[in-house]
Request: fold
Amino acid sequence: MEVIKIKGTDDTPNVILDAGNGMMEISGRSLPEDVAAFYEPILDWFDEYAEHSNKKTVVDFKLVYFNTASSKLILDILLKLEDMADNGHDVLVRWHYPDDDEDMEEAGEEYADIVEVPFEQVPYSLD
Amino acid sequence: MADLIDKQQSLDFVFEMYEKMKDHKVNLAYEGEITHQITKAFTALTESNMAKEDDYNSVQRKVFHVMVECLQNISKHAEGRDDSVQHREGRGIFLVSKDENEYNVTTGNVIRNEKVDGLRNLLDNINNLDREGLKKLYKQQIRDGRLSEKDGAGLGFIDIARKTGEKLIYTFLPINDKRSFFILISTISRKMKDDDF
Reply:
């Protein structure tokens, strides 16, 4: 399986999708100029991954900001994970948020509400 | 002679503009196309200004978010002024102002008259909802509103309203029989719940 490694910028997140090492992480800021184009390869990757996934899948989200356009694509990723969970796969989403950011905490809770995937809310200190 | 008058009028205009901006406490004013670079530049500028002013982190985050959503709305939805422009122009007016109590982020752009009623209904609906209602609407829109592109602006407005906790202030001013000018003012309080006003 292809490894995706995208270095984050001011407006695009850091992305690591490495099935071999069991590392799946999206972090940083997400407000890309073309949201669909940015997330397309990521969604395609998850489609392919689902066909021969690891025994256990853990996906880490560690975002400090995302715009509403990105929020829809993040949901798209989570829905793919929901499909996997529906098909009996062991999937866990870890939603990391700065411990002083109520909005990011709430976003994680909302996504956990919307999708049927086990979620772990993980606060962390920015200091 | 006409030249001298023009020059004087230009100079007068600059001072009028300066005074008007000061009266309305406008820090940033822009009219033109909203590109991605513009969005990045304005948000970076505002971020550094807010850090200097020592605004609460939560306030800084909210102002940043409102700016991003407002600028991207203009970029995606603003129309050309006349029929000769077939595609969307993505241009408009953008203002950021602040006083001791709040920040105001204002946008103004042209839209087609057919869009006015739908947009007005959406904004009225948003303004009538409480926090729980907005949360519900957000969850509904993010799931169902994804399929049609025209619903793209809805999620942004809903999210602005729920993050700021303030009513959206807006109006539609007719330009001609096909176009109107849509003005939106979003307010972000600089205070925390326990602060004295």
Remarks:
- Residues 35 and 47 of chain B are 18 Å apart (CA to CA).
- The domain at 26-189 of chain B is CATH 3.30.565.10 (Heat Shock Protein 90).
- The longest helix of chain B spans residues 2-23.
